[in-house]
Amino acid sequence: MYVHLGQDAFAVSDEIIGIFDMDTATVQKSTRDFLSEAEKKGEVINVSAYELPKTFVLCKTKDGKRKIYISPVSPATLQRRAGVRRTIYGK
Q1: Residues 59/17, Cβ–Cβ less than 8 Å
Q2: In total, how many domains does the chain have?
Q3: 65-74 pLDDT per residue, tens
Q4: The domain containing residue 40 runs over which residues?
């Protein structure tokens, strides 16, 4: 199944490792460093275009490559689209 991430971007639901809220996840320096390093490696795909980014989606493709999508869609909406029933923090 495919998950619409915004604009013309889709991710395969089986390849999604995590869906993260930009506001809370990027508070930690380690997360900012992770995203910065991924951007330098060309692994980041920004689909927010003219909107504020709300979410980043970490994916691992079948060939083992990492992709990180920056999306304007809220984490809760993406979780519903991906069929996530429970988050790691239990909500």
Answers
A1: yes
A2: 1
A3: 999 999 999 9
A4: 2-82
pTM exceeds 0.90: no
For the chain, helix (H) and strand (E) counts, in that order, are 3, 6
Pairing status of strand 44-46 against strand 66-71:
parallel
Residues 15, 62: contact at Cβ < 8 Å?
yes
Distance CA 68, CA 84 (A): 18
Strands (E), the chain: 2-6, 9-12, 16-21, 44-46, 55-60, 66-71
52 burial level (CB within 10 Å; 0-12, 13-18, 19+): exposed
Question: What is the per-residue pLDDT across 15-38, written as a single tens digit (0 to 9) for each?
Answer: 999 999 999 998 999 999 999 999
